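Translate structure to sequence.
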């Protein structure tokens, strides 16, 4: 029996070492010190043991009981302490105020695009979008700018590094939204009334007035008997709705290869009322868009008979509008992701 006690002592201590939770510790207590444990059984049956053996066995068994009890209480204290530390460390103070949630807002460009498109939608135009990575064919050729045309120089082009089997590089980042014109014309037949907003790209060094990416809204209408009067009526109405009903509009000849005749539309300066100021560069006028009657060659190239149909087209820069309205002095602010700027609009 003494032998049994020694083995029991060794086993109990070894098992206790491995225990890592209070639940397991309770299990250990039940099996080594519980009422039905071997040690307690031995203590209880000491009376049946021969007198010669009783003293030594009794003293060893009691000693073991005390030792196990003290090991138990040390271990228990340690486990409780560890648990307490863990809780303390992960404590959440639910009375602290939360992090304020910052609701976002639409980007100034997005808002302006929406404002422009809404005006045209109310006049019966449909909103269409074209790809930003475009073929040279749509961006230039179908717009009456064949290879070598001098007007191509005005569009500092970012070419995409894609080569055909014949070694040509016909892919680019669109330099304007005008390629949506042939894209739509090719696929539909008049009457057509479309506005096409989107991002455009230019291979340009950036400064306060130049960005390599900006936005435009293109628009065009094709039907029988569309004339310059429709162009004027539509665009003057647009300009007044965007900049105020008492705006005056100026209409001057300009050149774009894809329209004939081409024109530029300006409004009288809304800052000085036309007297001349810093905003209008002392001229009294602010240019807002380019436009014209769609060139017969462009119509023909898209399968629309220019003897039967005619149309007008226009294109405008989007960022320019809030730049004028709010006196923003650096276009780079639009896309440098500074929330202090973006949150104001
Ligand atoms: N695409 C021209 C540009 O980026 C703007 C433009 C001018 C568009 C006249 C037109 C237009 O549709 O008729 O400079």
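Result:
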């Amino acid at each position: 029996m003494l032998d049994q006690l020694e083995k029991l002592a060794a086993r109990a201590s070894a098992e206790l070492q491995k225990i890592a939770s209070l639940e397991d510790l309770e299990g250990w207590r039940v099996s080594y010190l519980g009422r039905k444990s071997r040690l307690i059984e031995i203590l209880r049956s000491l009376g049946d043991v021969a007198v010669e053996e009783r003293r030594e066995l009794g003293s060893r068994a009691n000693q073991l009981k005390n030792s196990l009890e003290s090991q138990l209480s040390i271990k228990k204290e340690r486990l409780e302490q560890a648990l307490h530390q863990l809780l303390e460390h992960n404590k959440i103070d639910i009375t602290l105020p939360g992090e304020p949630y910052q609701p976002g807002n639409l980007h100034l460009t997005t808002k302006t695009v929406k404002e422009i498109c809404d005006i045209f939608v109310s006049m019966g135009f449909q909103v269409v979008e074209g790809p930003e990575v475009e073929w040279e064919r749509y961006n230039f050729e179908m717009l009456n700018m064949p290879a070598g045309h001098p007007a191509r120089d005005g569009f500092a082009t970012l070419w995409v590094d894609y080569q055909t089997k014949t070694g040509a590089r016909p892919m680019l980042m669109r330099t304007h939204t005008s390629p949506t014109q042939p894209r739509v014309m090719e696929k539909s037949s008049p009457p057509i009334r479309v506005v096409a907003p989107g991002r455009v790209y230019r291979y340009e060094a950036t400064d306060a007035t130049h960005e390599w990416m900006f936005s435009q809204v293109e628009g065009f209408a094709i039907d029988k008997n569309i004339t310059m009067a429709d162009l004027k009526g539509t665009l003057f109405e647009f300009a007044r709705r965007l900049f105020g009903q008492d705006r005056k509009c100026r209409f001057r000849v300009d050149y774009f290869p894809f329209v004939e005749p081409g024109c530029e539309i300006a409004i009288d300066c809304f800052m000085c009322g036309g007297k001349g100021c810093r905003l209008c560069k002392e001229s009294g006028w602010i240019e807002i868009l380019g436009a014209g009657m769609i060139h017969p060659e462009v119509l023909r190239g898209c399968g629309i008979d220019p003897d039967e149909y005619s149309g007008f087209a226009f294109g405008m820069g989007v960022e320019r509008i809030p730049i004028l309205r709010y006196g923003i002095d650096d276009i780079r602010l639009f896309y440098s992701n500074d929330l202090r700027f973006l949150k104001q609009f």
